[in-house]
Amino acid sequence: MDLTANTTIRHQELGTTSAAIGGAVWIAAPWLPASRPLAVASIDHLFLLMPLVAAPLALTLLARLRDEDGGARSPLLWIARCLQPVAAALLLLSFALPVGTTAGLLTVPWLAMALLVTASGVSHAVRHRHVRSSGASLVAAQVFLSVGAVWLLLWHLGTGPRDFSPVMVSLAALHFHFNGFTAQVLIGATGRRLTRRSAGLQPLHRFVTVAAIAGLPLLAVGKSIPVPVARILGVGAITLALVGLSVTMTAVALATRSALTRSLLLTAAASGAAAVALAGAAGIYLAFPLALGVSLPVGVFGF
What we know:
303 residues, mainly alpha, 11 helices, 0% strand
């Protein structure tokens, strides 16, 4: 028996099992008894899709990509993956409680899990300094996860930077988890799967990598200082990165032999295109709110 292959299968089963159970819990969450009930499709409900479903799948994909680099498996990443279901369950409980100290403390295990992932990613990058652009996306993903976890802690403690409303703090946590972690893992994985027939898309992939990594910090700096130009550049970078990811992911899908895999990848690419439309609307609003005569709540786009 190939022990390495058997171990890889067990690692993948951990993520898929956690995601399957998490998906069922996520669907049922709005109807679970709680002192702070979740509304369907609310910010809280949408965010919970990350720890319950997206995170275990992204961590499984991340571990698989790390295995492709060779070398010993990271014990830190393995511990983080084992901790993830427990941390996600406590996070679900945190969302059922009023904002405050207890709710904040229940997010600490998630922050600990994120810090383990970040430490694993940074140490891997130090050992493999000749990283490809896809590797840069994976390192950024692991760093952004901890940044998002800090925002999540602030959100549930009911605090944040002076000029940030509670909604803006919550959306910052959402951005750094989805755009910062999940999207970066997808970008890295897509770059690894571009075939020779798609070699012409490598420059686009490199642009996507840079734009996606730079977009979130630009957006955050633009709001914190505040610098409107930085916010506009940040929204533009994220928008273009998602457009490029949709294109490269479509190319990978069309080169895939499995019909199921191809269908899932094309669905993911289409979802990215839909997100682009929303991000584009945000960029237009940030650039020309007065000219458009549109009045939207402060922080509706997160920054």
